[in-house]
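note to self: dont lose this again. the chain is below, predicted strucutre after it. 222 aa total, dont forget to put it in the shared folder this time
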Amino acid sequence: MRIALLGGTGDIGQGLALRWAYDTDHEVVIGSRDPERARAMAEEYETELDSLGVSRSINGFANGMATERADVVVLAVPPFYVRDTVEAVADRLGEVDVLVTPAVGMDRAEDGFHYKPPKAGSVTELVAESVPEGVPVVGAFHNLSADRLANLKVELSQDTLLVGDDEDAKEMVRTLAEEIKGLRALDAGGIANAAEVESVTPLLINLALNNEGMHDVGVRFE
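---
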């Protein structure tokens, strides 16, 4: 399977790229608005994997080229870029099996981070409104610590919550998520539930900021 991470040079994109390259045999492709940056980061990821004894080829392209022939596209860009990114690659999304969005709208104030959803209700709903008709959208990976995800020497032991209206697409993302060792995917319902999932992220960041030893805090439901 070919997984394209648009914005794969950022924190969450880096973590997912490294984990899928380390734990699975899927083809991982890095996308960016700047193809040179995508290629440079892909080489850095290869070097890091090689240092751990894993030889993998990771390619970097402009976002549109990365999207072509991808089975799954992860929209690993900041929330204020999601609509523009979707529109920029819309003509390449027709054959994509599923578009995944982990973005969360937040503001930072003096007292911490606060959830700030777009007018659509959540970033996941915004993405679902922006994609071409027939492209299934799944919200996932919102509440993971990007630093912990990118540290391949650390076991995750965390959950990710999935929201989506297409059950087949959600099952595909569940399988991909659980191929990452230590990650469990739980079904949180349809896209209408995305705001409840996304709003957990600023809570976790505030916990990490205010409690010693909780820098990589995540969630695990028991």
